[in-house]
Amino acid sequence: MDTSDRALPVESVNFHVWQPCNMRCRFCFARFKDVRRQVLPAGHLPAADALRVVELLAEAGFRKVNFAGGEPFLCPWLPELLTSARRHGMVTSVVTNGSLVTADGLTALADALDWLVLSVDSLSPAVLAGLGRVTAGRALTEEEYLDLCRRTWAAGISLKINTVVTRLNLHEDLGPFLLTTAPRRWKVLQMLPVTGQNSRDCGPLAVTGEEFGRFVLRHRWVSQHGVEVVPEDNDAMTGSYAMLDPAGRFFDNMRGSYSYSRSVLECGVRTALEQVTVDRAKFLARGGRYHWERPRDEAKPVPGPAGTRPLSGG
């Protein structure tokens, strides 16, 4: 057990628990083909090791864990990881492309999952296809995204939406969709090139900081309707996250590519953290610490048809 009294640089951690994905997004910064090729041929730890990583993170003092991928809903033991994290007192979150999330699955996870983070980069199937955000050649439709948001709220799970801004969706208006789905947070990310991850595919998708700023400004009005807008340009994303790769190693992107620590299973969380850069000032500046917890009996918005305002549901 990690018994050090030293404060962690940040309170939340992203665990990229599953390298495989059923989509091939051109801008994806978490492909981890290097990890699979050099360290972890399966692209993920065995269930027992992944559960031990969660225990170590909790024992070290992390208060929130975000399970990411790849696509974490491909992981058969995701429910066990969420249950363990909750049992150890952590707030839980999963970031997903949404293609594998079912109503029954959300209901089954309701007691263990606090936040569902849904990636919505466009409402145009053509744009999504151009980005590679498709599975079996098919993109999710606006109606399917709306239905998934509705089911998330109905299950008592807080909704967050992530959008990566690229050349293909730069001029799209997501405001009405955000007003209808009423996520608690909308994270807007400037596409981040990372050598060895997406650098071969993402060049034509890049947007400037000025273009990204205009996209954010154009959507700021949704904050007047209860949607917290959280923009992150490339600088804000660099060095401001505690991130674990599928092998249980911390990594950072300070040099434009990933540098990895030893596995927390080998040396413990705090020793591994010392081998990467996590800047607390930048973490706080990008809004990394917010009100994660919420009462489970709180009234939840339930999205109506596209273009309508959300209704209050039980």
Automatic annotation (TrEMBL):
Example of a GO MF term: 4 iron, 4 sulfur cluster binding
The protein's required cofactors: [4Fe-4S] cluster
A GO BP entry: defense response to virus
Region feature (Disordered): 294-314
InterPro entries: Aldolase_TIM, RSAD2/Viperin_antiviral, rSAM, rSAM_sf
Record keywords: 4Fe-4S, Antiviral defense, Iron, Iron-sulfur, Metal-binding, S-adenosyl-L-methionine
SUPFAM superfamilies assigned to the protein according to its UniProt record, in alphabetical order: Radical SAM enzymes
Statement: the UniProt record of this protein carries the keyword Cytoplasm: no
Ranges for domain Radical SAM core: 5-225
Protein name: S-adenosylmethionine-dependent nucleotide dehydratase
Organism: Streptomyces carminius
The organism's taxonomic lineage, starting at the top: Bacteria, Bacillati, Actinomycetota, Actinomycetes, Kitasatosporales
